[in-house]
Amino acid sequence: MTPSTDKELNGLDNPSFMSEDGSHHCASLDHAAQGPEKVKGKAQSNKLAYTVTDIPPWYLCILLGIQHFLTAMGGLISIPLILSKDLCLQHDLLTQSHLISTIFFVSGICTLLQVLFGVRLPIIQGGTFAFLTPTLAMLSLPTWKCPAWTENATLVNASSPEFIEVWQTRMREVQGAIIVASCFQIFVGFSGLIGFLMRFIGPLTIAPTITLVALPLFDSAGDKAGQHWGIACMTIFFIVLFSQYLKDVPVPLPSYRRGKKCHFSPIYVFQIFPVLLGLSLSWLLCYVLTVTDVLPTDPTAYGHLARTDTNGDVLSQAPWFRLPYPGQWGMPTVSLAGIFGLLAGVISSMLESMGDYYACARLSGAPPPPKHAINRGIGMEGIGCLLAGAWGTGNGTTSYSENVGALGITKVGSRMVIVAGACAMLLCGVFGKVGAMFASIPTPVIGGLFLVMFGIITAVGVSNLQYTDMNSSRNIFIFGFSVFAGLAVPNWANKNNTLLETGIIQLDQVIQVLLTTGMFVGGLLGFILDNTIPGTQEERGLLAWKHSHKEEADNSQLISKVYDLPFGIGTKYCAVSWFRYLPACPRNLPGGKKMDELKAAGQESSVKASLERDSEIGADTRI
């Protein structure tokens, strides 16, 4: 399983990024040479059991919905565990479990909003790694660095008011920055500005940005894995074995169907749950080594944190039921430093999600999403980030492409399955023991997981270069310089923060956060250089990149059925004429046709003339 940044538009070895015959997508524009027999064979091999608008049986919805939730599990639990150290919570496992439960709960809410009112495709929403780097940069400011005593487990009393105030002040600062930054994403989405921005952002901007999401996290991964390299390497071995070597090996499992009754069906378990299986086996082995006292009992000894009983108390302390609510950590606070840093994460997240929409549409049997659906999806993700900030997950939300890949595996593209998965997230967010269980995973096991996931994120960023001409010295310079500067400048800024002081505290914090956020430095340099150094559209990769997301003409009724707002909003109810001028609403015209489809058919002029005549005679134009 890959993390949340493994997107279709940035993807490498991603099921959602493969062409319909299973071969990897290339930057070639010559797709028209395929014969009709080959196209027919593709259609037969890609036939879906349920398309996006179908409703499978209730039991199938529940089972496949839980599967989607488990597929997203690795990314969801990783984010609170990474943030815990900088929030001074490394020795407060109970609060870590509350954060995990909160991110489950909010991800369920955001998924429901996205499926019902957003882009309306079967796509899971969850925490984003794009927000991690600027958040960690903000928490590394001198104002927010953890006191030395919070790093000593013997001095930490998790229930003391002093300790609670220490971590909650930091969390409230992160919440405020996420809430304000999410307003920018809401504006960009619902105003239709995302289309304008995409004119200037190409692969050479996205590649260094995504690459630098994970590279600065090598220290965190190395520290956790270094608590016991044997356990960490075992975790890596299991994940790589399941996800790479055994992914095409089916496992016969009992199943039931009316025609066949009880029988065995081949299920690609290793391909669907590689991370979950790898974590479970490593966790089980750690438990055996703990019971047999192979692992040291001395807290100061190497390998002690691999024991399962070091974190065992959290399961008994966690409540059975706990309902997360907005403002549970107090009233969010706002500072300019956090806002500007997180804006880089917001832009990165938006670009990633756009690729997911096209991949999800292709794999769920839906037509390519029209502009109003993309605008609505990006805007709804902004609302999701707003809710995540209000609830206090310490992170935002984005689309998960590993779940897009699961659509291609299961051949079930129904959005009702994702609704069931969102309900599973909500339930797990309410049951406190579930979050506590994941918070008690031994540290080296988490370290092994991080090494795999962060490596994949880095490669995902580099994979954007497949669209560009990498024989061009121009492109090699832009990417290489942007990435190296994105590592060198933050390293220097962290060591020489006193040289950046201007005397204005707020300005100093903004400069410090921006210059210590590698993805901002690298992405900004890539953006400036790519748009100023002369180069052809083909050389820059813009032609191939845009072609991969080219909208194809499709049946207007099908587009309306998939992407129009639910419950008759805009058609039966709230049918006001000015709705069609909103970027996030379908541009319906009299007779049920839409402006976008009529443009594609070359009828734009006649439509405009018809509208002018209607306005002249005062016709009642309904949506």
Automatic annotation (TrEMBL):
The chain crosses the membrane at residues 57-83, 95-117, 177-206, 226-246, 267-290, 329-347, 417-439, 445-464, 476-493, 513-533. Its main location: membrane. Pfam families: Xan_ur_permease (PF00860). GO terms for molecular function: transmembrane transporter activity. GO terms for cellular component: plasma membrane. Keywords: Membrane, Transmembrane, Transmembrane helix, Transport. It is found in: Membrane. Residues 601-623 are annotated as: Disordered. It comes from the Eukaryota. Residues 610-623 have a biased composition (Basic and acidic residues). It is a multi-pass membrane protein. Belongs to the nucleobase:cation symporter-2 (NCS2) (TC 2.A.40) family. This is Solute carrier family 23 member 1-like.
